[in-house]
Specification:
Blueprint lengths: L3 H52 L17 E4 L5 E4 L3 E5 L43 E2 L5 E9 L2 E13 L5 E9 L1 H53 L14 H50 L6 H25 L7 E4 H10 L8 E5 L6 E4 L1 H18 L4 E7 L5 E7 L25 H4 L4 H11 L3 E6 L5 E7 L4
Length: about 475
């Protein structure tokens, strides 16, 4: 099932169905228990009423039964024989005996009178001095309850029977079974069950429909985002944006994040296009110059400008190396994790630049150790690019210093006494193929990749590269790197 709406509707319907079924069963069980308790109470009252009459030695024929149809009565003696049944009782089950025909047994209400006493003694024989019968007793224990059926006047029904024991004044123990009808309980439970079976499918249908509609409404912005993304993919127009809903929920945040991703992607693609165009333009000049010189040399060997051809080849090689490094940086190449001492790295790089136009002054505190983690080759490239830039613009002074940074890192600063960088151009100079000295020749001004490479390498090492005004009046490029460890 691929539709989120369908999965949500089915899931919600199943959860509600399980909850309703569980609640319905609980309601039915509680209702049935309450109704059975009421039936038990009615059966117990009827049984104790008959037992009370028997305890008073009331004859079977004189027993007063309230409602023989609703409360059928059966009385058994100590041996389980039926001694009395209510009027109209034709069949019974669930009691001590299935019999409905009384059998001869010890009579009730036959207590002898005082005149029948041969001895004339006033013994305590269950009677009093007036000749009236004495009292028996009714068991105070909780009665036993059972389910059964009874047929009264030809109508069979289910009953709840209560069994109460009674002892007559003559010492005869009888068990009275009195029933209470379960028709009301069955009817109530059946009505509730029928209502649940009828209402449950309707309620589940409503839940499914409401969940479907709510989910569709909630996912409508997602569908709009999907359609717009499909259109952007088809048109390859990264300037388009997905619609952002006015809500502040997860979908709105998804739309905003999607648009931010498109913005970054558009900028990346645009930068890539510019990079390719500028690289093609930069490569075209040395390649065309080299080709021209080779063609002239082929026709007129004596006119071959060998130094110029070598210079164009070197420039082409340097440009290719720069482009390759930028490509690796753009691909997310991570720097190495070697532990480097920045002061020694700077001294070594300066010592290899004996042919620079202006001597470089190195300012590193003696005995100080400034260690960082990173790629030695890339950090050497950063220092070299900054020194090349300073040599290009300095009048007569270039210095590089290494010191502890106020933020706990290491600071490398390259200064010159040139014209400096205008404040409004201090970020633009780190863009690729940007040269502020366009009037100069390409040989003197470079391709405009050195500072861009330096900043990218600094960022990959967790540092920053910025430009400021130097005390000598020129530019001061500050490279900040985090300390090792």
């Amino acid at each position: 099932m691929r539709s989120v709406r369908a999965r949500a509707a089915i899931g919600a319907t199943l959860v509600v169905a399980v909850a309703l079924v569980a609640a319905g069963l609980a309601v039915l069980l509680v209702l049935r228990a309450n109704l059975i308790d009421q039936a038990d109470l009615q059966a117990e009252v009827a049984a104790r009423e008959v037992a009370g009459q028997l305890a008073l030695d009331t004859p079977y024929a004189d027993l007063d039964l309230d409602d023989e149809e609703d409360h059928p009565v059966q009385v058994t003696d100590e041996e389980g024989r039926v001694v009395f049944v209510s009027k109209g009782l034709r069949a019974i089950s669930g009691t001590g005996s299935a019999g409905v025909r009384p059998v001869p047994s010890a009579s009730v209400g036959a207590t002898p009178s005082p005149g029948d006493d041969d001895d004339g003694d006033d013994d305590d024989d269950g009677g009093d001095d007036s000749g009236r019968p004495g009292r028996g007793e009714v068991s105070s224990d909780d009665p036993d309850f059972s389910d059964g059926t009874a047929t009264v006047d030809g109508r069979a029904a289910d009953y709840r029977f209560a069994a109460v024991e009674a002892t007559t004044p003559a010492g005869l123990t009888l068990t009275v079974y009195a029933g209470a009808p379960l028709a009301a309980e069955q009817e109530a439970v059946g009505t509730v069950r029928g209502a649940m079976l009828t209402g449950l499918p309707l309620l589940l249908a409503v839940v499914a429909a409401v969940t479907w509609l709510v989910t569709r409404r909630a996912l409508r912005p997602v569908e709009g985002i999907r359609r717009e993304m499909a259109a952007i993919t088809a048109s390859e127009d990264l300037a388009r944006r997905v619609p952002e809903p006015d809500s502040r929920d997860e979908i709105a945040r998804l739309a905003r994040t999607t648009n931010e991703t498109l913005t970054v992607l558009e900028a990346s693609v645009e930068r890539q296009r510019r990079f390719v165009a500028d690289a093609s333009h930069e490569l075209r000049s040395p390649i065309a110059s080299l080709r021209t010189q080779l063609e002239v040399a082929e026709a007129h060997p004596e006119l071959l400008d060998l130094p110029g051809a070598v210079a164009d080849t070197v420039r082409l090689q340097v440009l290719a190396v720069d482009l390759l490094l930028l490509a690796r940086l753009d691909a997310g190449e991570k720097p190495g994790a070697a532990r480097l001492e920045v002061g020694a790295l700077v001294r070594e790089e300066v010592s290899q630049r004996a042919g620079d136009r202006i001597p470089v002054t190195v300012e590193v505190a003696e005995g100080a150790a400034y260690e960082v983690n990173g790629s030695r080759g890339q950090l050497v490239r950063v220092v070299g690019n900054l020194l090349d830039n300073a040599q290009r613009h300095a009048e007569g002074f270039v210095a590089v210093s290494v010191a502890a940074d106020a933020g706990g890192g290491v600071r490398v600063e390259v200064r010159d006494d040139g014209a400096g960088v205008p404040e409004g151009e201090r970020e633009r100079i780190f863009e690729r193929f940007v040269r502020l000295d366009d009037a100069r020749s390409r040989d003197d001004g470079g391709a405009g990749l050195g500072l861009a490479i330096a900043r990218d390498v600094a960022a990959r090492h967790g540092g920053t590269l910025t430009v400021h005004q130097a005390p000598e009046g020129g530019a001061a490029f500050r490279l900040r790197l985090p300390r090792a460890g």
